[in-house]
UniProtKB/TrEMBL annotation:
Keywords: ATP-binding, Carbohydrate metabolism, Kinase, Nucleotide-binding, Transferase. The lineage of its organism: Bacteria, Pseudomonadati, Pseudomonadota, Alphaproteobacteria, Rhodospirillales. This is Anhydro-N-acetylmuramic acid kinase. It comes from Niveispirillum lacus. It catalyses: 1,6-anhydro-N-acetyl-beta-muramate + ATP + H2O = N-acetyl-D-muramate 6-phosphate + ADP + H(+). Coiled coil: none annotated. GO terms for molecular function: ATP binding; kinase activity; phosphotransferase activity, alcohol group as acceptor. Pathway: Amino-sugar metabolism; 1,6-anhydro-N-acetylmuramate degradation; Cell wall biogenesis; peptidoglycan recycling. It comes from the Bacteria.
Length: 366
């Protein structure tokens, strides 16, 4: 099938879109891929919904949070803009299916709650095509973490590359997450801690833009060891894997009082050290780490990771993959698996008790 996959992650910067040809088990071809920014008012609507959700984390119902309707409208409009652009491109071709995970505004698996906004039915009606959505709920309802949800696609990618095992995929979005793949195909995956999220928040707080381009500000600063020690005392790091995070489980409280450059340096080091802290949770140290997501372009972060991990850090792009859109491709892959009734998660990826199917299908009206 030729599938359009979408992803709007915890960084809230916009939407990644990619066309993938797959049967849900093997990768048959890659179509166009692109990124689309959220408009300022769209991002503001999403941030308002997140703030309301964090203030009332027990309210799993969208109706309980009045800002959700505005956020859903904003997310849907942004995805329509992205899909229109993808389908009008000269290389778009026929699309058989859309994989639409929506925008996460609350992820509390400990409360059996994960909430994404975005109107899949509106997309299905507009494009007259089946849209697979709500990928995570069945996993959480069955006792899983509902994240990370890309590992099965990571395994499919690794199978095409002939990498030495064990190998780890490290996605650096708002949150960091690792997928460990053993030589026997065994998987273990979990969120490692903050990815770019805290660094981005720090930059915004200081009026220095929305992210630290290439880690330039971090390179100018000094790492505060006392602050690092406090950050690494977070209870999350003592939990067994698999495990997952909401982006806002970590805050900037510990770095307040540092200068802008020192704070950026410390938060960048924190991301790297928190990834390194995951190694004892893995069955064996990876022979290499494949870097995906926006953080792979932060040279200071990559240098810190290489130092902390003691193993090669390989940019996914150097393997011929598209490091920015791997998650969008993954939701195209998972959409086909949903149609075929194949598992979207397994015990090693989310802690779900047994391989778990999931997703729902919005079909166009007759």
């Amino acid at each position: 099938m030729r599938v359009l996959g979408l992803m709007s992650g915890t960084s809230l910067d916009g939407i990644d879109a990619a066309i993938l040809e797959t049967d849900g088990e093997t990768l048959l071809g890659f179509g166009p891929a692109a990124a689309f920014d959220y408009l300022p008012d769209e991002r503001q609507a999403i941030e308002s919904a997140i703030a309301d959700a964090l203030a009332a984390p027990h309210a799993a119902s969208r109706a309980a949070l009045p800002s959700f309707a505005a956020a859903e409208a904003a997310v849907t409009a942004a995805h329509i803009r992205a899909i229109d652009a993808m389908l009008s491109g000269p290389d778009a071709g026929r699309i058989d299916l859309i994989g639409f995970p929506g925008q996460t505004v609350l992820h509390r698996p400990d409360l059996s709650c994960t909430v994404q906004v975005g109107d899949a039915c509106a997309l299905s009606a507009r494009y007259r095509i089946d849209v697979v959505h709500d990928f995570r709920s069945a996993d959480v309802a069955a006792g899983g973490q509902g994240a990370p949800f890309v590992p099965l696609y990571h395994a499919a990618l690794a199978a095409t590359a002939g990498l030495d095992h064990p190998v780890a995929f490290l996605n650096l979005g708002g949150v960091g997450n690792v997928t460990w793949i053993g030589g026997d195909g065994r998987l273990l995956a979990f969120d490692t801690g903050p990815g770019n999220g805290l660094i981005d928040q720090w930059m915004v707080q200081h009026g220095l833009g929305s992210f630290d381009a290439d880690g330039r500000l971090a390179r100018q600063g000094q790492i505060s060891s006392p602050v690092m020690d406090r950050l690494m005392q977070h209870a999350y790091f003592a939990r067994a894997a698999p495990k997952s995070l909401d982006r806002y489980d970590f805050t900037l409280d510990a770095v307040q009082g540092l200068g802008a450059a020192d704070g950026a340096a410390t938060l960048t080091a924190f991301t790297a050290v928190s990834v390194a802290a995951s190694i004892p949770l893995l069955p064996a140290p990876p022979k290499a780490w494949v870097l995906c997501g926006g953080g792979r372009r932060n040279a200071t972060l990559v240098a810190r990771l290489t130092e902390a991990l003691g193993a090669p850090c390989i940019n996914a792009d150097t393997l011929g993959w598209r490091g920015d859109t791997i998650e969008a491709e993954a939701f195209a892959f998972l959409a086909v698996r949903c149609l075929r009734g194949l598992p979207l998660s397994v015990p090693g990826t989310t802690g779900v008790p047994q391989p778990q199917t999931g997703g729902r299908i919005a079909r166009p009206p007759h």
